[in-house]
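User: I'm curious whether this sequence folds into something compact or stays loose and floppy. Could you predict its structure so I can see for myself?
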Amino acid sequence: MVLGLSQQHPFTQSIPSAIALAARSPDSTKFSITGVIMRTPAIATAKKKKETTNPVSPSSGPVFVAPQILQPHPHNVAIYGEDEDVSDLVRLIQDSDWIKPLVVTPAHTIISGHRRWKAAQQLKLETIPVEYRSFPHELAELEALLLENASRHKTTEQKVREANLWKTLETELALQRQKSQLKQGNTVPVQDNCPEREKGQTRDHLAARVGLGSGKTYERAARVTRQIDEWLDAGQQDAASALRKVLNYQSVAAAYQLLKMDSQQRDTILSLIASAKAKTVKGALQLMKRAESIASMKPPNLAGFSKGDIVEVNEEATNYVGLRGRVDQLNPVEQQIWVELEQDKKKVSFQPCELTLIAKMPPPVPYLVGDWVRIEIERNEAIALEDSLWNGFWGEVVSIGETGSVEVNVGAKTLRILPRDLQAIDLDFGQKKADSRDDNAN
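Assistant: Here's the prediction. I'll summarize afterward.
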């Protein structure tokens, strides 16, 4: 069959005014149904596409056409999205070498078979079977679109968007029947069971139709879906994507409870889910609780140490016993203290029991190299007895350690002493020698 025959579009009635709203953008708009905001394509755009194609007559059986001349129905994209995974269908078509005919309008718009069409494009098929079918009006076309997708697997969000469209269609179809009865002289409009139902019954009816369980579940899921749309409109892609994951892959209840949380807690949970650090709301809450616990953790056996303290490795750590250093980092979670050793600047991790606190973070050393000092060590359990035996000896400062210790040459030995255990003999002597060296150099 040769396509492209020039015939008038068979539609005889335009979409009712309740659906044909002005579009906010070239490809999408929203309309409100008793508090349920639904994202739907602009009818004006859909009509424009139909007018620029070459319609054909409805066919009595399948015909083969090039996939490139077909176009997706705008409402199918609005409900089911554009990024569906059809890899399973691609494999099935490859194995069976058969495709069920697509149902399309005479304007080449797909009603049924969007996933088959995408699979055919991925397989680069030259032709695919289609069945051209005409509809009396666009409401009937939209109804067919929903019915043809009744058996497909859907996410919770897709079910909500289907229910929203079903509500509009049933309301508009009921209005058309009422108008038809009035034109026939019936002064009492036919009562339709959808628009005149009580709110709870209407919700239950729509929920059952799309497989959402109860009307309450549908109402909550619709609230979550509206929030997703609002965040997408505001450019909050990560938050919208994370909330969609909770709705579709966890539960309606979990997604709805998120909206009831304070904004700071909700945003933190969504951020953890968006970054894949947590898969569920419960998992995110556990991570948050653990982080709070760590932040407030102050183990008793680390309380005596702080960054910058001077410590000495005791006999509990045999490889470094006797070495001194400065506390570089505390890790309360792992119960570790990182020390930068004075001897080789190496950073080593120790348990608190392996360290002896020598001095808290020291003040600036009040001595210069060349100063003469007298050793006055106060005896305590932290000081080796051998060091205290040098009390009363005089010596010269030969170096200043980065941990605040002072090395003193007493003649027979060089001792490493803390500034608090020294008394100055002549604080100006070292500076005078330095000045003298500078003068000689000049």
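Summary: Residues 1-53 have pLDDT under 50 and may be disordered. DSSP finds 14 helices and 16 strands in the chain.
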